[in-house]
């Protein structure tokens, strides 16, 4: 698989409708479309009698009503959160008020590292700081209903608190924003960490799953092949950054302008954050240096560059 053909945008969201995607699994997609959310946030309903709802989505009353219609009066025991971005977790509190379900999963928002002096988190507004879980799940911990069990898989990288969830005995994993078929995950420091993201890809690659249901877009039907492709894609981005540094680029905007020439300009800000995450990882490995603490505004150079 090449990085040119590995991503698929072939997805029909059917906004507001409950779509059966696997036995006892329904998807309801919110109509919060955009450059970062693609065709909207996918919420998943697991079970047939006692239910779990994974990632209820953003503050959106139309989506709440669509979820309640799909639930159709059945018992919801758990509302499960993969991570605390405002397109995934805010509706949990409202759904809890309607169903009495426990909110479980990701820890409240925290950063992978502290902000450096003078540094600004460009995606700070994307964090759901009102999220209040009833229980935080650790890696490997189970959430169980009468006919299903979901196991938490710690997959930090996109966010420091990101979890994926394996539906036991099915080979299905709900991957949130860690792995998506339509695009690579945004890794934005200090909440995101490229080293953690790559480690989480390795963790998923070591598993033997058959199907991923992501937070946006359609399913990943060949997980191992796709994850290997994601790793290759990130390694190519790393190589492109090192090449730009070798050609004299020193700032993130310079690098983004060259590396992401064919990318939607609306995504260049996010691309800059991913480049920054990659530079942080390269600094940790001793391949790149910068003056002082790394930040979006800093100048970077190759570690062996004496100029």
Automatic annotation (TrEMBL):
SMART domains: Lactamase_B (SM00849). InterPro entries: LACTB2_WH, Metallo-B-lactamas, RibonucZ/Hydroxyglut_hydro, Sec-metab_biosynth-thioest, WH-like_DNA-bd_sf. It holds the Pfam family WHD_BLACT. Residues 40-216 form the Metallo-beta-lactamase domain. It comes from the Bacteria. Gene3D superfamilies: Ribonuclease Z/Hydroxyacylglutathione hydrolase-like, Winged helix-like DNA-binding domain superfamily/Winged helix DNA-binding domain. PANTHER family: ENDORIBONUCLEASE LACTB2. This is MBL fold metallo-hydrolase. It comes from Ahrensia kielensis. The lineage of its organism: Bacteria, Pseudomonadati, Pseudomonadota, Alphaproteobacteria, Hyphomicrobiales.
């Amino acid at each position: 698989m090449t990085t040119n053909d590995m991503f698929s945008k072939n997805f029909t969201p059917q906004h507001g409708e409950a779509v059966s995607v696997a036995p006892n699994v329904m998807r309801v997609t919110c109509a919060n479309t955009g450059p970062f959310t693609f065709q909207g946030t996918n919420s998943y309903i697991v079970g047939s009698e006692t239910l779990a709802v994974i990632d209820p989505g953003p503050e959106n009353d139309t989506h709440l009503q669509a979820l309640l219609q799909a639930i159709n009066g059945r018992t919801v025991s758990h509302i499960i959160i993969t991570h605390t971005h405002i397109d995934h977790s805010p509706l949990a509190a409202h759904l809890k008020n309607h169903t009495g379900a426990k909110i479980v999963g990701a820890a409240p928002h925290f950063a992978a590292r502290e902000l450096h002096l003078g540094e600004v988190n460009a995606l700070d507004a994307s964090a759901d700081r009102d999220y209040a879980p009833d229980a935080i799940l650790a890696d490997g911990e189970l959430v169980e209903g009468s006919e299903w069990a979901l196991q938490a898989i710690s997959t930090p990288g996109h966010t420091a608190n990101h979890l994926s969830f394996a539906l036991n005995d099915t080979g299905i994993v709900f991957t949130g924003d860690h792995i998506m078929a339509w695009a690579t995950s945004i890794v934005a420091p200090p909440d995101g960490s490229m080293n953690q993201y790559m480690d989480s890809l390795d963790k998923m690659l070591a598993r033997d799953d058959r199907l991923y249901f992501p937070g946006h877009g359609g399913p990943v039907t060949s997980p191992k092949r796709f994850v290997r492709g994601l790793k290759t894609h990130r390694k190519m981005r790393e190589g492109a950054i090192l090449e730009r540094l070798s050609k004299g680029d020193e700032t993130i905007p310079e690098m983004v302008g060259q590396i992401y020439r064919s990318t939607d300009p609306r995504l260049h800000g996010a691309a800059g954050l991913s480049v920054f995450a990659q530079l942080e990882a390269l600094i940790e490995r001793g391949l790149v240096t910068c003056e002082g603490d790394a930040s979006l505004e800093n100048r970077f150079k190759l570690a062996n560059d004496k100029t």
